[in-house]
Each structure stands twice: as C-alpha cells, then as structure tokens.
Write a structure and sequence with these properties.
The complex is a heterodimer of chains A (117) and B (116). Chain A has 117 residues and is mostly beta strands. Chain A contains no helices and eleven strands. The model of chain A has no long low-confidence stretch (mean pLDDT 88). The chains are: A mainly beta (117), B mainly beta (116). Chains A and B meet through strand 5, strand 9 and strand 10 of A and strand 5, strand 6 and strand 11 of B.
C-alpha cells in the first residue's frame, strides 16, 4: 500500500469543466508537491508546499490552482483546461528541514491520468 | 543551470543480462544530491537511491549498483542479472541546494524492457 494516495486514478473532462485532484499522504511528511508528466517530456514540478505554505510556483498557468488545507492533504483544482494539459499528474511528499530542503527522497503517488476533450 | 541527461531513451535486454543506465548531470553547486527513481507501468515513482555530492563511494543493493563519478559528472545505474519485473522507466534526478525547496530536476527517463 502506497503512503501517498491520489484520487481519482483517471479523469476525463471537457475544457469548460471544473474538477479537483486529491492527494493524501500517510507518512507524516511536511512537504508536498504536484508534478506534471507529459509524454516525452521530463517531469515538471508545478507546486511545492512546505508546512502548508506554498513555497514554489513554477510559472504554472492560473487554470491550475493548488490548495493545501493541512500537511497531509493537497488538492489541485482544475478550471478551463486546454488539450495540452492532458498528462499524468503526480503528487509527492517528503520530510524536509524547516530551513530548506531538496535533499530528501520524495515519495510519489500513483498519479491521476487526466484527459482533456 | 542544473540539467540531467539520460541519453538512452529505450533499452531492451533479455532476462539475466546485465544492463547499465547512464546519467550525466550538470550543476554549478558544490553541494547537491542525486537520485534514481523507478516508474513501473502502474505510474508510481519508486525511490531507489540518494547520493550526496561528498560521497563518491559506489553502492550495491542486491542486484542494483550505482557508480558515482564526480570527475565525469555521472551517476550510472547497473542492474545485474535483469528480470522481467525490472521492466520500467528509470529516472535520474538532481536536487538543487538547500534553500530551494524540493526542486528535483529529472532526466527524461530510460525505458527498460526485459524480455523473458
């Protein structure tokens, strides 16, 4: 059983729909991440939350809106997406020092496969 | 700028063969961390190993071994006596130094197919 759970596993939506991706980690970690994995491209970091505070936004379009209500849950709200947003969206968590990080292994969920019609 | 290059896009081997996955990185930092992850068809990335820039000792874990060479900026991964269950996409990653929260720079991955 993975320590990071993502729902739904698959999502098909139209460009005008609003949906949310959910991520939950059971590892007691204090940092959570959203990544986008498109075909033939490296994994792209989208957002980072450390101690529930957003510390990174990698120039992600505003049609993606993250929310981190507590250190165990992370959401990605989707609105008016484009066909090029079809991808696998991966959530990860890690235990980082308060002063900074980047050196701890990240534990990933199974991802949500998103298809935009 | 940090960069990770995995030149091998796809590798296909027959079971029991040894296979080496290459990873070359670029960074101006003297302190950095390197990682390998495995992504099976199910999608989840599985952490395999972390190495810091001050530890050049090679590591062996069962059939897996890693060769870290700072002189050539490489962190290669070898699977000995490959098995069908090793079939997956393998990613090498580099982390930016402390102060840049969680910025893992991933290579494009190498897809390994192990045939029976």
């Amino acid at each position: 059983e993975t320590g990071v759970t993502q729902t739904p596993r698959h999502l098909v939506m139209g460009m005008t729909n609003k949906k949310s991706l959910k991520c939950e980690q059971h590892l007691g970690h204090n940092a959570m991440y959203w990544y986008k994995q498109s075909a033939k491209k490296p994994l792209e970091l989208m957002f980072v939350y450390n101690f529930k505070e957003q510390t990174e936004n990698n120039s992600v379009p505003s049609r993606f809106s993250p929310e981190c209500p507590n250190s165990s849950h992370l959401f990605l709200h989707l609105h008016t997406l484009q066909p090029e947003d079809s991808a696998l969206y991966l959530c990860a968590s890690s235990q980082e020092a308060a002063a900074g990080g980047g050196n701890q292994p990240q534990h990933f969920g199974d991802g949500t496969r998103l298809s935009i019609l | 700028a940090q960069k990770v290059t995995q030149a091998q896009t796809e590798i296909s081997v027959v079971e029991k063969e040894d296979v080496t996955l290459d990873c070359v990185y670029e960074t101006r930092d003297t302190t950095y961390y390197l990682f390998w992850y495995k992504q099976p068809p199910s999608g989840e990335l599985v952490f395999l190993i972390r190495r810091n820039s001050f530890d050049e000792q090679n590591e062996i874990s069962g059939r897996y071994s890693w060769n870290f060479q700072k002189s050539t900026s490489s962190f290669n991964f070898t699977i000995t006596a490959s098995q069908v269950v090793d079939s997956a996409v393998y990613f090498c990653a580099l982390s930016e130094p402390r102060g840049s929260q969680g910025n893992l720079i991933f290579g494009k991955g190498t897809k390994l197919s192990v045939k029976p």
